[in-house]
Amino acid sequence: MMSQKEKIKELAKKGMKKKEIEQELHVLYGASSLKSTAIYKYIAKTKFSPEVLEENDKPGRKIDSQLLNRIQEVLNEMPFASSYIIADILKETQTIVYRYLTNHLGLVYKQSLWIPHQLNFQQKKDRVTKTKELLSVLEKSKHQGWRGIITGDQSWFGFYYGHDGKWCLPEEKNPVMNGSKIQMKKVMVTIIWGVNGIYIVDFLPDGESYNSEYFVEHILNRLVKMKADIWGGSDVKKFGYILIIPEFTIQK
Fold first, then answer.
1. How far apart are CA 60 and CA 94, in angstroms?
2. DSSP assignment, residue 30?
3. Helix, strand, coil percent content, the chain, rounded in steps of 5
4. Tens of pLDDT along 95-105?
5. Domain extents for the chain?
6. How far from each other are the two terminal CA atoms of the chain, in whole angstroms?
């Protein structure tokens, strides 16, 4: 009986797509049939095998099978690498790499799809409540030119947010990127400011958790010590705050 590798090559040369080949193998070999990754690898090898290269080659343009193998190796290690990255790794021009990817490997570059962050009903309700509380504070401070108000924001800043896209076979779906999850190193930055300028820029140290204890110690306590600079001759010893996720506002 023909091996699965030989069967894949035979079906690929007939023009069958990866999903069709996968279904055919399942019928022939059952539970022992090869998985998608292996099928993809053998299809790719078939597409730039010597006999296929001769058929697809343009007159006067010789195909470098070694370069095709090197491109495939990069994709195996870095499936989200762009043509520019592959070209830089292989010390080739982007134009040549792009031609090999599209003409000889039969790949297309598909943009990643972002998964939006959805709020549930309770989260939406809480945000409306907190926003109304904040509006009340701002309206009361308007006659003072909002001098008694300082506000702030904290956010994660990622050194890298994910992959823009991926080289795929035409029948494959776009890769998915979850926008709510930073995939690599990140840092939390908190900035506090008011009508007179910026008072705090805080970077969360590695290994620390951004919780209420951290906020009180590193943000609120620092503001108490800066009270004279922020509010001048005020004799107010306490101040309250309203937390608006992800923003927060502090009232004198």
1. 20
2. G
3. 45, 20, 35
4. 899 888 988 88
5. 4-111, 121-164+171-251
6. 82
